[in-house]
Design brief:
Strands 10, 11, 16, 17, 18, 19, 20, 21, 22 and 30 form a ten-stranded antiparallel beta sheet that branches. Among the domains are: 220 residues, Rossmann fold, CATH 3.40.50.1000; 230 residues, Calcium-transporting ATPase, cytoplasmic domain N, CATH 3.40.1110.10. The two termini are 68 Å apart. The protein is 46% helix and 14% strand. The protein is of the alpha+beta class.
């Protein structure tokens, strides 16, 4: 929708800064954002085109054209055009309303203001008016208007720190460098707009807005074609009958009708009769069906919007159904594709526990020294006496603060390491409060913990780090910074303290750091390893902490070698890595940290519940492999109990194919693996895969990175990937691009024929959200791009459970019951005309009054079926959540499919036979109670119409599982409405006003006052309904479904006390996982030591190697006084129990 024609791929872009006239000749896109589908000019043609993609709408248009031909029309044209226009208008209004809100959201973004340099002065300009080449000035914490090139910054060396939360949900900061030729301009200039609007990376990765239809809609298209074929067959039979009748019997009436011989050919008569019956029998699929479907979907959408259990009070955000056409698809989801950051996690790290010198801190003990969980009932440590404490930090174990007060040297060294060994930058806000700018959230959590416990990181320069230790400023000389990378999985700093001692402080993955320890640490290592396993069992991310005292002479020799290695042209990185390895040995273990990457509330329970519902969850994230694996374990998607975890990390197509082949051999055995590793997609292969999937025993997981995924998505490999992935319980794709996310969704969507759902919170998820059958946006603090592109939105991942298991399941259940009943009643209603054709000379005469035909679907039976379609439920919402297995019928498409349609069709045919032949047999050669002949056409029609209304009303009463006042009013009110309209239309008064339109004068009063008529109606009703009651009773008694069993239990619960809800039990895994799996990046060490990210500050008042008194009375002394009473309540036993 962004461009009318496909643009050629740009190789280069020529831009003149601040020269709009020059840049306009290249016709670059403007900066206006479009997520809407229509505008004023395109709405009517595009919307009509979309609506007439429905076979039914085209079918009704065809019928309307037929009804305009008087020679073949038995019904007036308005009976079709009014409902058709009504349906198209209602759908168009709904679509226009949806798109209006998209336009409204677009305008909110487009009308944001930014400062643009125009005519040599800064002016406020709306985002949509920013042009390629404009120079834009951005302030701190301001949104970015377009893809920008950094010209200069107020920060030193042309650096700026950006947060990409609106793009990918990441709240940690990224560094960007200004162009070297413009970086010295300082704050005078800021950024140059390179790509605007649809050319920006965000919009390029968003994909196109697609027209989505549910599987029921697609099935309906097929069924309408089948019904039309069935209709043609009926028309042909009746047309042949008419030709025969005209040839053998009809010629006897020609004299009567003043026809000349041969004026009406029997074949031509049959041809006209064929089209007449096509018009009469078209009510098998009435247009009111589609009106009712839209109304039901609208009602379901409002239920989602109004659900208080999906309202997030933290941000006053309700759930929102942004479309009204996909609700029942929510009840058929088989695959969920989820982003990680901001969707599963909050991207907030919190310091939970630590192990120092063999003792765990962070656990709370009761009076008998029994370990208990930390809960809100436990009093957290009061850090209020520390004026620089972070007020958001909470820690409930007072023992650690007690150890600080008592001067435990190991605790001091542990906290000192946390305050020194990191890449955090500090600054003060306008209120004078210390603010940390962190490159990775886990580092921020560790430095904040040290800060609250008395070791406050204050500032840094390229050569020094200043820490306030228990109220005293201490400046350390930074001698070397051994940076983190994915191979080392650790970082170290070498500092000289004021006493002149040189120390190496290191933190990193325990599996790596433990190999560097001095042999004397063996006992402590065993104890710390047990603690790490305990931390991991609680889903925490761990880091090992160690240090080493360095000899001055040794360090100088090592540093000289490091300087020499840094100047090498060849093998520079290898030499530096070797020197890092050399000095990071014989470390002394201090302990370990345990950090929690906060999952969103209820994520674990939601994933467990969805898994029980046989919904497979794939995580597609741009994060590193270690990060994704950690979150997988934290969510219990990955567990140590799994039979195998396959990691695909090949760098070439051959390597990826081989790794997939080996994984398949492990999963199925040698016989199931394809010999050449490459199989084309065929129906037989997919059917075989589904059979194999049923026979797979055990739990498996697949983890694949983006580089390998690019090869795996190639045509000759993707079958192997899909086959393996679908056999696994969990699939994690890491380091994937937005385009790859969409490709993975399309792969499963197209080749598994499965209903897919994508959920995300950032702009990098938009393409995936648009590709899936259902797209869900998380409306959090990460921006609105995902929400704007989504079909549904809410604030927390946990609401997905209720959306699918309750609203989705109910919507599917209700829509299927609605369709089954609607087809049943309309076959019963319409096919009476077919049987009547054999008794009326195939003349295309209608068996009912025309007003009854017009009002049957619009008035007499519309409200009861709407009430069932909107309000019905087989089990309560709580039982739907407690028994996720109830979701399975939707995935298997059991409640409405081709087989169900034929059953409804057969039921309707049987009812039509009873409706026609029971009254026909009863009326045949029978006189009324008054002795007069009653077997007239009008009495017969009234009797059949009354029987039909009563039969279908009783049937919907039997079909209704959940009764409300509305159901009662609509069902029995519709019956009452039928009789009131019937007597009105058959009255003398209405006949006197409209004699041509209401010919059935007095018939209702005459017919329905006779007992025999009511006996016929009763017999017809019993004959139509009793077989259904018997079949359903036997089915429920002999082979009840899970829904039937739970419904019986619900009834029992009303008589006894409620049963306890059966929530899925969740369990943490026990694998240790390093905290360095998170967003830490290589290169920050070099940035810090170069000084490029440092602001110029006033020189310190004291030497860098001297301790200076910061306050006459340190805050730690005040803390000690305040906590004397608290500390005395704890056990004084400080020994370590091995």
């Amino acid at each position: 929708m962004f461009c009318s024609k496909k643009k050629s791929l740009e190789v280069e872009r020529i831009v003149k800064a601040n020269d709009r006239e020059y840049n306009e000749k290249f016709q670059y896109a403007d900066n206006r954002i479009h997520t809407s589908k229509y505008n004023i000019l395109t709405f009517l043609p595009i919307n009509l085109f979309e609506q007439f993609q429905r076979v039914a709408n085209a079918y009704f248009l065809f019928l309307l054209i037929l009804q305009l031909i008087p020679e073949i029309s038995s019904l007036t044209w308005f009976t079709t055009i009014v409902p058709l226009v009504l349906v198209i208008t209602m759908t168009a209004v709904k679509d226009a309303t949806d798109d209006y809100f998209r336009h409204k959201s677009d305008n909110q973004v487009n009308n944001r203001l930014s400062e643009v340099l125009i005519d040599s002065k800064l002016q406020n300009e709306k985002w949509m008016n920013v042009k390629v080449g404009d120079i834009v000035k951005l302030e701190n914490n301001q949104f970015v208007a377009a893809d920008l090139l950094l010209l200069s910054s107020s920060e030193p060396h042309g650096l700026c720190y950006i947060e990409t939360a609106e793009l990918d949900g990441e709240t940690n900061l990224k560094v960007r460098h200004a162009l070297s030729v413009t970086s010295e301009l300082g704050a005078d200039f800021s950024r140059l707009a390179k790509f605007d609007g649809p050319d920006t990376k965000l919009m390029q990765n968003s994909g196109k807005t697609k027209f989505k239809r549910t599987s029921i809609d697609r099935l309906m298209n097929t069924l309408v074609l089948w019904i039309f074929g069935f209709l043609v067959c009926l028309g042909i039979i009746l047309a042949i009958g008419n030709s025969i009748w005209e040839n053998q019997v009809g010629n006897q009436f020609r004299t009567f009708l003043f026809w000349n011989e041969g004026e009406k050919n029997s074949v031509f008569s049959g041809f006209l009769t064929f089209w007449s019956y096509i018009i009469i029998l078209n009510t098998v699929v009435p247009i009111s069906l589609y009106v009712s479907m839209e109304v039901i979907r609208l009602g379901h959408s409002y239920f989602i919007n109004w659900d208080r259990k999906m309202y997030y009070s933290g941000k006053s955000t309700p759930a929102e159904a942004r479309t009204t056409t996909l609700n029942e698809e929510l009840g058929q989801i088989e695959y969920v594709f989820s982003d990680k950051t901001g969707t599963l996690t909050q991207n907030i790290m919190t310091f939970k526990k630590c192990s120092i010198n063999g003792k765990i801190y962070g656990e709370v003990h009761d009076d008998v020294s029994q370990k208990t969980d930390i809960t809100k009932k436990n009093e957290p440590v009061d850090f209020s006496v520390n004026p620089q404490a972070d007020t958001t930090f909470q820690f409930s174990d007072h023992h650690l603060m007690e150890s600080v007060k008592l001067g435990d040297s190991k605790v001091y060294e542990f906290l000192r390491l946390l305050a020194l060994c990191h890449t955090v930058m500090s600054e003060e806000n306008s209120a004078g409060q210390l603010i940390y700018q962190v490159q990775s959230p886990d580092e921020g959590a560790l430095v904040t913990a040290a800060r609250n416990l008395g070791f406050i990181f204050k500032s840094r320069t390229p050569e020094t780090i200043t820490v306030e230790e228990l109220g005293t400023l201490v400046t350390y000389q930074l001698l070397a910074f051994l940076d983190f990378n994915n191979i080392r999985k650790r970082m170290s700093v070498i500092v000289r303290n004021p006493e002149g001692q040189i120390k190496l402080y290191s933190k990193g993955a325990d599996t790596i750091l433990f190999e560097k320890l001095h042999p004397s640490n063996e006992d402590l290592l065993t104890l710390t390893t047990n603690h790490l396993s305990e931390f991991a069992g609680e889903g925490l991310r761990t880091l090992a902490i160690a240090y080493r005292d360095l000899d001055d002479k040794y360090f100088k020799e090592w540093h000289k070698m490091l300087e020499d290695a840094s100047t090498l042209m060849d093998e520079r990185d290898e030499r530096i890595a070797g020197l890092y390895e050399e000095i990071e040995r014989d470390l002394m273990l201090l302990g370990a940290t345990a950090v929690e990457d906060k999952l969103q509330e209820g994520v674990i329970e939601t994933i467990a519940s969805l898994s029980l519902a046989n919904i497979k969850i794939w995580v597609l994230t741009g994060d590193k492999q270690e990060t994704a694996i950690n979150i997988g374990y934290a969510c219990n998607m990955l567990t140590d109990d799994m039979n195998d975890v396959f990691i695909i990390a090949g760098n070439t197509a051959v390597e990826v194919r081989e790794e997939l082949r080996k994984a398949k051999e492990n999963l199925f055995g040698q016989n199931r693996s394809s010999s050449n590793g490459h199989v084309v997609f065929e129906k037989q292969q997919l059917e075989l895969d589904s059979v194999v999937e049923e026979t797979i025993t055990g739990d498996y997981a697949l983890i694949i990175n983006g580089h390998s995924l690019a090869h795996a998505l190639e045509s000759d490999v993707k079958n192997d990937l899909l086959e393996l992935a679908c056999m696994c319980k969990t699939v994690v794709c890491c380091r994937v691009t937005p385009l790859q996310k969409a490709q993975v969704v399309e792969l499963v969507k197209n080749y598994r024929n499965a209903v897919t759902l994508a959920i995300g919170d950032g702009a990098n998820d938009v393409s995936m959200i648009k590709s899936a059958h259902i797209g869900i946006g998380i409306s959090g603090q990460e921006g609105l791009q995902a929400v704007l592109a989504s079909d549904y939105s809410f604030a927390q991942f946990r609401y997905l459970q209720r959306l699918l298991l309750v609203h989705g399941r109910w919507s599917y259940f209700r829509m299927c019951k609605f369709l089954c009943y609607f087809f049943y009643k309309n076959f019963a209603f319409t096919l009476v005309h077919f049987w009547f054709g054999f008794f009326c000379g195939f003349s295309a005469q209608t068996v009912y009054d025309q007003w009854f035909i017009t009002l049957f679907n619009i008035v007499y039976t519309s409200l009861p079926v709407l009430a069932m379609g909107i309000f019905d439920q087989d089990v309560s919402d709580q039982n739907s959540m407690d028994y996720p297995q109830l979701y399975e019928p939707g995935q298997l498409n059991l409640l409405f499919n081709k087989r169900k349609f034929f059953i409804c069709m057969a039921h309707g045919i049987y009812t039509s036979l009873a409706l026609f032949f029971i009254p026909y047999g009863a009326f045949y050669n029978v006189a009324g109670e008054d002795g007069q002949h009653i077997a007239d056409y009008q009495s017969f029609a009234v009797t059949m119409a009354t029987s039909l209304v009563i039969v279908v009303s009783v049937q919907i009463a039997l079909d209704t599982s959940y009764w409300t006042v509305i159901n009662h009013v609509f069902i029995w009110g519709s019956v009452a409405t039928y009789f009131s309209i019937l007597f009105t239309m058959h009255s003398n008064g209405i006949f006197g006003i409209f004699p041509n339109q209401f010919p059935f004068v007095g018939n209702a009063q005459h017919s329905l006052t006779q007992k025999c008529i009511w006996l016929v109606i009763l017999l017809t009703t019993v004959a139509s309904v009793v077989p259904v009651v018997v079949v359903r009773f036997l089915k429920m008694d002999l082979c009840p479904t899970l829904s039937d069993q739970i419904r019986q239990r619900q009834k029992a619960q009303k008589k006894t006390r409620p049963l306890r809800s059966r929530r899925p039990q969740t369990r943490r895994s026990s694998s240790r996982r390093s905290g360095y799996a998170f967003a830490h990046q290589e290169g920050y060490g070099e940035l810090i030591t170069s000084g490029k990210n440092m602001r110029a500050k006033n020189p310190p008042l004291t030497s860098g190697l001297e301790k200076t008194l910061y306050n006459s009375t340190s805050w730690i002394e005040n803390f000690c006084k305040k906590t004397t009473d608290t500390v005395s309540s704890f056990s004084q036993d400080k020994t370590v129990k091995l």
